[in-house]
Amino acid sequence: MDMISAIEALDALAQETRMKAFRLLVKSGPPGLPAGTISASLDVPHNTLSSHLGILQQAGLVSSTRQGRSIIYALNFEGTRALLAYLMQDCCRGAPEVCSPALDSVLSACCDPGQ
After folding, report:
1. Domain count within the chain
2. pTM of the full predicted structure?
């Protein structure tokens, strides 16, 4: 990930509804959630939520697939990992043992599609 992409991803997360939607999708794991479920969970109108999810998708943090008449949104694991890695890549230069456990724990706790 480059700096511009990281800034776009952070900008996408720098809004309350988008952060809530992102965190909800982190919790939902690889299967994701239908747009209607996200809308109801966050008490956000469908059209407003669609705009927010589009911003998260453009930032590479969320993906969508159509299943019949529903659109299923899920965390984009690759984009999320790239952002976390970018934020941590210069951490503790010269002493990686200090930051490696933090990065490993974040990635395994929230972004492992195998869980």
Report:
1. 1
2. 0.83
Q: What is the DSSP letter of 61?
A: S
pLDDT digits (tens, 9 = 90+) for 54-70: 999 999 999 999 999 99
Give Cβ neighbours of residue 68 (< 8 Å, ≥ 6 apart): none
What's the rounded Cα separation, in Å, for the pair 88 and 40? 34
Q: Which domain holds residue 91?
A: 1-115
Task: Report how far apart the first and last C-alpha atoms of the chain are (Å, whole number).
Answer: 24
Q: What is the pLDDT of residues 30-86, one digit of tens each?
A: 999 999 999 999 999 999 999 999 999 999 999 999 999 999 999 999 999 899 888
Is the torsion defined by CA of 113, 31, 1, 91 positive or negative? negative
Over the range 60-91, which residues count as b (16 or more CB within 10 Å of their CB) and which as e? Answer: bbbbeeeeeeebbbbbbbebbbbbbebeeeee
Count of all residues that appear for the chain in the document: 115
Q: What CATH number is given to the structural domain containing 81?
A: 1.10.10.10
